[in-house]
Amino acid sequence: MTLIDSLRAEARAAPESGIVAVVNYGRLREGMIPLWAGEGDLPTPAFITDAASKALAGGETFYTWQRGIPDLRQALSRYYARHFGKTFPEEQFIVTGSGMHAIQLALDALAGAGDEVVYLSPAWPNFDAAAAISGAVPVPVTLDHSGNGWSCDVEKIAAAITPRTKALFINTPSNPTGWTADHETLQAILDLARAKNLWIIADEIYALFHYGHGRAPSFLDIATAEDRILFVNSFSKNWAMTGWRVGWIKTHPALQQVFENLIQYSNSGVAQFMQRGAVAALDEGDGFIAEQVERARKARDLVCDILGATDRARFTVPQGAFYLFFTVDGITDSRTAAFDIVDKANVGLAPGTAFGPGGEAFLRLCFHRRLDQVEEAAHRLAKWMKTV
To answer: Cis peptide leading into 173, omega within 30 of 0?
Structure first.
């Protein structure tokens, strides 16, 4: 028996990220325009880093509240009051070591070996992999795609539910498709979860990156205090803090001790000086978010105009998030295409094969960057399309 053979089967089966494979292939190329990862190109703004630096210099380097410092949980309460019109006490928030950590804790709480978790696909691949590593069975339900865009057939979700199903994972606005659930769809999903006594893991990380009127519709608009919903979120996208690895869970106060215990036995809490930066992000960052969303809107419109003019790219203009998920006429193997685009266009895209069922023929482009780079990348892609 080899060393690898002696590991858990779930660990051995953990897939290499299809996104990272392309990143590693092209990251050192001179002149590369990297649109493969889900982040913008701006560093964390000074009002956030200064708050963290001040706390670090002031000696806030000791063990701290595992569920998050009170100041940060109170700031989260204020954030939800401003953006969602709901007042939640600080006891409903748990600070985590990233949005990914929040998802992992939610899975730890809800699903074990052999349990099933239904999710919408194409999807950010980390959820599927995290569920499988935990021993649960991830069950994809594909979004419908047509000339009218992406949509969710709730009856397909219902058909995927079995006696072993414990939870539904719903990401809206969606990475990678940009699909954004309306209130009617959210209500239908919530009604289904109530009828089947299922939990919902609601990933609304892109709720403010919405190109309609105001933020995207949320389960918070229709849920009651006793609904079985865990909201997982992250500071990464709104405030340009991808490298900080700070997130949160909003949950029922009755579950606080359970999640504090799960924090204890995973990362034992987030560094206090980093949490000070997160407080500043929440309390001082609304203007920065608005600027980021408008910047992303302009970039979205620009790249859609350029690629749309090729008459080779097929896509739906995304309603939310900051990705264009598109196909190219005649291209069916997006993984091979992504490597070819690195070689011939010096643009980094994520292959749709990384996002599971329904995404195989697509490519994902993150347009959350400065306009001149997005424009240049789009022109390079248009030129590449003429060669294939």
So the answer is: yes
Cα–Cα distance for residue pair 335/327, rounded to 1 Å: 12
**What mean pLDDT value characterizes the chain?**
96
Domains of the chain are 3-44+287-386 (3.90.1150.10), 46-285 (3.40.640.10)
pTM here?
0.95
Q: Are 194 and 303 in contact (CB under 8 A)?
A: no
The Cα 283–Cα 51 span in angstroms is 12
Q: What would the two tokens of residue 121 be?
A: 């696909």
Query: Would you place residue 372 in the very low, low, confident or very high pLDDT band (cuts 50, 70, 90)?
Result: very high
Structure-token match 């939800």, residue found = 80
Give dist(CA 293, CA 373) in Å, integer.
17
Cα–Cα dist 172/178, whole Å? 8
- CA separation for the pair 33, 28 (Å, rounded): 11
Mean pLDDT on 37-43: 95
Nearest to 249 by CA among 89, 127, 99: 99
- Give strand pairing partners of 33: 347
What pLDDT, on the 0 to 100 scale, is given for residue 147?
82
User: Which residue blocks in 197-326 are alpha helix, DSSP H?
Assistant: 256-264, 272-284, 286-308
Q: CB-hemisphere CA count at 13 Å for 127?
A: 31
Element (H, E) at 199: strand 199-203
- 286-308 helix and 371-385 helix, angle to the nearest 10 degrees: 20
